[in-house]
């Protein structure tokens, strides 16, 4: 996967979305903006003890009328923001996939498993949708700053890219 192209595609997606992305990042305000844009309720659901062992630290569930985003509220505020942004990125990208819908019913008595149309959990970064959500989450939470500088030379350009782009996974160990 070409991570530079993925990042560019995510930036373009953000530019074409009909939502205001708050700067600095504000999960509640972004949820209201997404909800308004999609014409459906979007509920943030903190889990004080996190999701059960073996489960992802965040999850998005879509029903016919609403989106539900669960996140681990027992982790640091920065990690919570990123988990929420990652799940909201799945919403914004309209990703599809599946987990066991019966699982979502364990988290909220208001959510009947039979109403679930889509369910995604944050699990692996080997999947293209997960990479896209992770990249978009990084863009959603990054402060809007000055445009990227023009850096002459290959070494400075590579150094800048390594400090500002999402970490690349490599099979090599240092």
How would you describe this structure to a colleague?
The chain is of the alpha+beta class and 174 residues long. The chain has one domain. Helices cover 41% and strands 15% of the residues. The chain has six helices and four strands. The chain has helices spanning 3-16, 27-38, 77-93, 101-104, 128-141, 154-164, and strands spanning 41-47, 58-63, 66-72, 116-121. A four-stranded mixed beta sheet has the order 1-3-2-4, covered by helices on one side. A hairpin with a 2-residue loop joins β2 (58-63) and β3. α1 crosses α5 (128-141) and α3 (77-93) packs across α5 (128-141). The longest helix has 17 residues, at 77-93. It is globular and about 55 Å long. It starts with a helix and ends in a 10-residue tail after the last helix. The model is unreliable at 167-174 (pLDDT under 50).
The largest sheet has its strands arranged as 1-3-2-4
Summarize the amount of helix as a percent range.
40-55%
Query: Got a strand count?
Result: 4
Using the alpha-carbon principal axes, give the shape: globular
| Major sheet summary line | 4 strands, mixed
Which structural category do the helix and sheet elements fall into? alpha+beta
Strand proportion: 5-15%
Compute the gyration radius: what is it? 17 Å
Mean of pLDDT: 77
Overview features:
alpha+beta; 15% strand; 4 strands; disordered C terminus; 174 residues
Gist of the model:
The protein is an alpha+beta fold. 41% of the residues lie in helices and 15% in strands.
Question: What layout of secondary structure does this protein have?
Answer:
Layout lengths: L2 H14 L10 H12 L2 E7 L10 E6 L2 E7 L4 H17 L7 H4 L11 E6 L6 H14 L12 H11 L10
Parallel strand pairs: 1-3
Antiparallel strand pairs: 2-3, 2-4
Helix pairs in contact: 1-5, 3-5
